[in-house]
Design goal:
The complex is a heterodimer of chains A (168) and B (716). Chain A is mainly beta and 168 residues long. Chain A is built from three helices and ten strands. In chain A, the strands form two sheets. Chain A has a five-stranded mixed sheet with strand order 8-1-2-10-9, with no helix packed on it. A five-stranded mixed sheet of chain A has the order 3-6-7-5-4. In chain A, β9 and β10 form a beta hairpin. Chain B is of the alpha+beta class and 716 residues long. Chain B has five domains: 139 residues, HPT domain (Four Helix Bundle (Hemerythrin (Met), subunit A), Up-down Bundle), CATH 1.20.120; 139 residues, 2-Layer Sandwich (Alpha-Beta Plaits); 58 residues; 180 residues, 2-Layer Sandwich (Heat Shock Protein 90), CATH 3.30.565.10; 153 residues, CheA-289, Domain 4 (OB fold (Dihydrolipoamide Acetyltransferase, E2P)), CATH 2.40.50.180. Chain B contains 21 helices and 22 strands. In chain B, the strands form five sheets. Chain B has a six-stranded mixed sheet with strand order 14-18-19-17-16-15. Classes of the chains: A mainly beta (168), B alpha+beta (716). Chain B: Its EC number is 2.7.13.3. Chain B: It is an enzyme of class 2 (transferase). Chain B: It holds the Pfam family Hpt.
């Protein structure tokens, strides 16, 4: 079934145009984007159950209508200083295929921003930062008007067993 | 128009294995000389459908083999032949053989045909009227090869609706080609005008010349499925084509059909021929497609094997009752939403409360019934034992009667699958070590026929399975001396009979004097116990010397629900499986002593219980740390007893186990998660994982531990 979804996505884009839709969100005054097809829903922040001995960016587990979903603080995943969660803090629930397994996870971000249609070939490669581990998570950079949006590679961001990009 | 047959493979395999099980069970019921026709019929039907199915799906190795088996059964059924014990043994062996063939095919492996051929030769020897013996069997095999070859002319003229009945002539042709040298000519004179042309109809007919050593019967069989949908003529025409070179093969059949018509199409381009070419092209494409799908299936089936996806058959009554309950649930929901639409008055509040009670009732019923879907009678496990006992007792020269009690007791399917191996082990043990030889039994004044009883029944929320034998019982002296020799206990230790019997579950313990193929390989009862504990169950033994022993397995009915004790650690709620809790107590500080660096031990009656501070292991802040203000939950796992330090005991309740791994990853010391009544997630503690995580090691065998890793060594 999973493969089928992939095929459908492919067909949809082949059929229409090369543009992909990206959901963007704010974090530490930067705008980040992710493939909107991976997004399941957006929820407000609510307390979660701590998972013992988990990495610090794993906030805990949440009940999503009967499914246990891990919640990841994206700031901490990127090694950005933590802030207190406020009314704008949201959890973006995404469904990503990691190592042939479809996993549902929640990402805590400062706020959601917008949805853009971006042609993928417009995305520029990440400049080769010498000592930025986080470059590993970045799929590409793209300009929308005056702003720059960082497109994320969700598979890498959410592959928790992969420690290569890990900070803190 | 082609049908992808591979989508039915799973169903075919499942049904065939069921058929084999049925055959086996019936065969064991057969007593030569006293067979009743219904039993033979059941066996015959099972064999026949396996043959038919495997033929359809092109598993020639299976269908060829089942064919001889079926012929023998047919003769017995018609009274042409008298069933002998030899036949039953042979049939039982062939059931194993077919099972092996099918398993190999299911795993997409090349089946090992050597055994099938040996058995087939024996069948053919019997059918040929010879007395079956292994020597004649080997002699019979090459004999078939030297048969005179004959050429047959075969006319095959299918009715137009052939394709609609799901038949693919190409398969039949390639089967024909396997019989010998095949020459095919196709006739397309019947193809109608384009307007009358229906692409789903078959307008072609064929003539074959087949040179084969096989009999006409074998050819007729290929067309067996289309007999009613086609005109078929098979005539022997002497050695007319004997000196023709061997050329026509299955692949060429398609090419022959495709090439000439395609050529014609480019030349003249008439509508009629176009249509034909198209059809031929379609056939070619279909073949290619099939090849691709087969490739896909290969990779897919590997995946599905890994995940172990299986299906179960559910009684229609269970489904009906579910539908009823969902109906009630919908009615309750309608009632509640009606109340919600009204203005809130006192009477509507009362109605609301009533509705909610009803909803709770409906939900509970529904939950119980959904659980019941996974429940199967334990006879699925029990049914393999008659064969096992028969074979094993023959090997051991013991006379054994097997009694099955409570076969209808229901059990969760996943539990059942994991129960099978430990039970096989225990039953083999009873046969090998428990029961005496007939001579010994007579000398002890017992019936020469020993009895092994399998008994299953429900008790509380558990299923209890007893494996009883009336053999010599456990030899406590032998166990004791063996345990001393293995260093499991000390010479000076005084143990009760129960404690000595318990020793057989210790790792590396086996009392068998010689290692046999049946038991005594050193991996023994400890594996049984570990497997059963992995299912949250327990296994115990009671034994009386000279009278027999009883192994008692206790298992929860399902793996999906667990009786849990909610405990509080700091501000977190965890669940401890109730089955592993021995007791909960307040700590008497005067009985706590410190061992090594930082390990605390509580003296509880005669035992020393190491204290694990849960908040420490789980790195939680803000928990109560003073021993006298907290509670100790004593739990047992893998024969260890440890005390878990918690802040408070909360409620006991049944929890539905949810996977934490599905979306996250394995967490040490946690076996899963659940959702509490208020919707929050709570984690279930995995006791044996926790012991590992805490760094408690077992240095000797009787001493429990020492050496707790410093907490700073734990991953933060």
């Amino acid at each position: 079934m999973i493969d089928q979804v992939g095929v459908n996505q492919q067909l949809m884009f082949d059929g229409e145009s090369d543009e992909k839709q990206f959901l963007t969100f704010m974090m530490h005054d930067e705008e980040y984007g992710m493939d909107i097809l991976a997004v399941q829903e957006i929820r407000g922040w609510e307390p979660v159950t701590t998972i013992p001995n988990s990495p610090n960016f794993v906030r805990g587990a949440m009940n999503l209508r009967g499914t246990i979903v891990p919640i990841i603080d994206l700031r901490m995943r990127f090694g950005i200083e933590a802030i207190e969660y406020g009314p704008l803090t949201v959890v973006i629930v995404v469904s990503v295929q990691i190592k042939e397994q479809q996993k549902i996870m929640g990402l805590v971000v400062d706020a959601v921003s917008d949805v853009y249609s971006i042609a993928e070939e417009k995305a520029k490669d990440v400049p080769d930062f010498q000592d930025s581990d986080n470059a590993y998570f970045v799929h590409g950079l793209v300009n929308v008007g005056q702003k720059m949006v960082v497109l994320l590679n969700l598979e890498k961001v959410l592959d928790l067993s992969d420690k290569s990009g890990l900070k803190g | 128009m082609s049908i992808d047959l591979s989508q039915f493979f799973d169903v075919f395999f499942e049904e065939s294995f069921e058929g084999l099980d049925a055959m086996e069970a019936e065969l064991l019921n057969l007593e030569p000389g006293k067979e009743d026709s219904e039993t033979i019929n059941t066996i015959f039907r099972a064999a026949h459908s396996i043959k038919g199915g495997s033929g359809t799906f092109g598993f020639v190795s299976v269908s060829d083999f089942t064919h001889v088996l079926e012929t023998l059964l047919d003769q017995i059924r018609d009274g042409q032949r008298v069933l002998t014990a030899e036949h039953v043994n042979l049939l039982l062996k062939s059931v194993d053989c077919v099972r092996a063939l099918l398993s190999a095919l299911q795993a997409e492996e090349e089946p090992d045909l050597s055994e099938a051929q040996a058995l087939k030769a024996r069948f053919e020897a019997i059918l040929g009227g010879e007395e079956p013996s292994s020597e004649s069997a080997e002699a019979a095999a090459p004999e078939v090869e030297t048969l005179q070859s004959t050429t047959y002319q075969i006319e095959f003229k299918p009715e137009p609706h052939l394709f609609k009945t799901g038949n693919e002539p190409l398969y039949m042709f390639s089967e024909l080609a396997e019989l010998g040298e095949l020459e095919v000519s196709a006739f397309h004179d019947a193809i109608p005008d384009f307007l009358a042309f229906d692409p789903e109809d078959c307008f072609l007919h064929w003539r074959f010349f087949l040179t084969t050593t096989r009999e006409e019967q074998a050819i007729a069989e290929i067309f067996e499925w289309v007999e009613d949908d086609a005109e078929i003529k098979i005539e022997a025409c002497g050695g007319l084509f004997d000196d023709e070179p061997a050329q026509p093969q299955a692949a060429q059949v398609t090419e022959q059909a495709a090439t000439p018509s395609a050529d014609v199409a480019t030349e003249s381009g008439t509508v009629k021929q176009d249509a034909e070419a198209e059809q031929a092209q379609q056939t070619l494409e279909a073949v290619q497609q099939k090849v691709e799908t087969v490739k896909n299936i290969k990779s897919e089936s590997r995946k599905s094997n890994d995940s172990g996806a299986t299906s179960i058959r559910v009684g229609i009554d269970k489904v009906d009752s579910l539908i009823n309950m969902v109906g009630e649930l919908v009615i309750t929901q309608a009632m509640l939403s009606q109340i919600g639409d009204q203005e809130i008055t006192e009477s509507s509040i009362a109605a609301l409360q009533e509705g909610l009670t009803q909803l709770a009732h409906n939900t509970r019923d529904l939950q119980e019934n959904v659980m019941r879907i996974r429940m199967l009678p334990i006879s699925f496990v029990f049914s393999r034992f008659p064969r096992l006992v028969r074979d094993t007792s023959q090997k051991l020269n013991k006379q054994v009667e097997l009694k099955l009690v409570g076969e209808q007791t229901e059990l969760d399917k996943t539990v059942m699958e994991k129960l099978s191996d430990p039970m096989v082990h225990l039953v083999r043990n009873s046969l090998d070590h428990g029961l005496e030889t007939p001579e010994e039994r007579i000398a002890n004044g017992k019936d020469p026929v020993g009895t092994v009883t399998l008994n299953a029944f429900h008790q509380g929320g558990n299923i209890v399975i007893e494996i009883m034998d009336d053999g010599k019982g456990l030899d406590t002296e032998k166990i004791r001396s063996k345990a001393i020799a293995n260093g499991l206990i000390q010479e000076a230790d005084e143990l009760s009979v129960e404690e000595i019997n318990e020793l057989i579950f210790m790792p590396g313990f086996s009392t068998a004097d010689s290692v046999s193929d049946i038991s005594g390989r050193g991996v023994g009862m400890d594996v049984v116990r570990r497997n059963i504990q992995a299912l949250n169950g327990s296994v115990e033994v009671t034994s009386k010397q000279g009278v027999g022993s009883t192994f008692t397995i206790r298992l929860p009915l399902t793996l999906a629900i667990l009786d849990g004790q909610l405990v509080q650690v700091a501000q977190h709620t965890y669940i401890i499986p109730l089955i592993s809790i021995v007791e909960s107590l307040q700590i008497d500080i005067s009985k706590v002593s410190k061992v090594g660096k930082g390990l605390e031990v509580l003296r509880l009656r005669d035992e020393y219980i190491p204290i694990l501070r849960l908040y420490g292991i789980f790195s939680h802040q803000g928990a109560r740390e003073e021993l006298d203000k907290t509670l100790l939950v004593v739990v047992e796992s893998d024969n260890y007893k440890i005390g878990l330090l918690v802040d408070d005991l909360l409620a006991q309740q049944q929890v539905v186990i949810k996977s934490l791994e599905a979306n996250y990853q394995k967490v040490d010391g946690i076996s899963g998660a659940t959702i509490l009544g208020d919707g929050t997630v709570s984690l279930i503690i995995d006791i044996s994982g926790l012991i590992k995580l805490s760094g408690l090691r077992r240095p000797g065998s009787t001493e429990l531990l020492v050496d707790l890793k410093g907490e700073e060594a734990e991953p933060a």
